[in-house]
Amino acid sequence: MSTFEFLFQGILVAMQPMNLLYAFVGVTLGTAVGVLPGIGPALTVALLLPVTYKLDPAGSLIMFAGIYYGGMYGGSTTSILLNTPGESASIVTALEGNKMARAGRGGPALATAAIGSFVAGLIATLGLAFIAPYIVKLALIFGPREYFALMVLAFVTVSSAFGDSALRGLTSLFVGFALAMVGIDQQTGQARLSFGIPDLLDGIEVTTLAVAMFAIGETLYIAAQANRGEDKVEAVKGSLWMTAQDWGRSWKAWLRGTLIGFPIGAMPAGGAEIGTFLSYATEKRLAKNPEEFGHGAIEGVAGPEAANNASAAGTLVPLLTLGLPTTATAAIMLAGFQQYGLQPGPLLFANNPQLVWGLIASLLIANAMLLVLNLPLIGLWVRLLTIPKPWLYAGILLFATLGTIGANPSVFELGMLLAFGVLGYIMRLFGYPIAPVVVGLILGPLAEQQLRRALAISQGDVTTLVTSPIAAGLLLVAAAAFIIPLILRIRGRGEVLSQLAASED
């Protein structure tokens, strides 16, 4: 069947009443957590993993994707009104958006962010639908060597794309590898690193680790910074609607941001942060009045927000077709797939086409829902910023604990939840990314299995790992994945830092 036929079938799946409800719940939760500073979509999806493990897989994954898109939308509200980006991808939005809010133009800033997100999400989701089948056709010819090289690329991706240091990312990744070795060896049946504890024979639960590292660790980290000053929320003054001049200055920035954000999000070492920095730099270069940048230029909000949401759809390209997570939320979604015994990749398109295409089609519906939710209800989202943080994070801690008990009622599991939560707090404290730990736990056993198969086929000849053109190409991309993010970050951040210095002067 053609892509149009698959997409039409996916729309039929996404339009089922229960799936529409899941999408609505997802985008509402995503917007709420995006608005709240310090809480991102990765934390929310991690919290919901143990709660949704008995639900329908398609509905749960649709809800997770809605949270991802909604979190990207909601993050702009915090950046513009509070000057506190909830995620690194919203840093650039705060530069111009908060200046617009202080000047009494918070409404147009929020409007251009919402409409730009809708335009970018729509175009990028269609791009995902048409590009994914070609990548799947290529991946279907993979053997053990190619899959192992793909896993190496995934490991390099998570170590270089998350955090500011590739060395720290690798350290976190090897922590995940160590945890992945706990349990029964898949090929020999021998117990490894179980230390005689029966509860460890089944290995470390991905759900427990994800909830502990993202929710418990984040709660402890925020509680340790309780003496921070109060954040000032800029009131939304004047009309929420954009003027004709605002529209004229924004629409080109939306398209440029989409064209920048989507391919960078789809890159193995991409991510939303890089696209927003490059979009901001591009808009400043092309602006008719570059002197307005740093004082509330609407292009500086429109372009980066479009790039931010386009990269969210782009991130799903390597996740769904190859099983490569390039953001923390994608890593948690990978855990969500495995929770239902599903492994993202080419076989997922072959074996579960209704689920995959229903998920892709649901993004189009979620995008429309988000536009309806964001503009009329902006006053409601702003009120969320007044929730006392002790109440907020105490609720997260309680929800995480109850969810873990519901998924696995075991005292030992609760002990691991606390232990991994403390580990997550320590890693955050010293600047180590936590997403690579989850990815190492998920993909480590798969990489080990494919490596053993490749060596068994070649009778132990290691050189055969690079004799395959596809495997050699993937390994070269993995090597480049260390270099490309550094170059892009240096170029993009150089522009932003110079802008910050100019604004301080």
UniProtKB/TrEMBL annotation:
Keywords, comma-separated and alphabetical: Membrane, Transmembrane, Transmembrane helix
Superkingdom of the source species: Bacteria
UniProt cross-references to Pfam families, sorted A to Z: TctA
Residue intervals of the DUF112 domain: 20-438
InterPro entries xrefs: DUF112_TM (IPR002823)
Residue intervals passing through the bilayer: 20-49, 61-82, 109-135, 147-163, 169-185, 316-335, 355-379, 391-411, 417-444, 465-488
Organism taxonomic ancestry: Bacteria, Pseudomonadati, Pseudomonadota, Alphaproteobacteria, Hyphomicrobiales
Name of the molecule in the record: Putative tricarboxylic transport membrane protein
Natural source organism: Rhizobium azibense
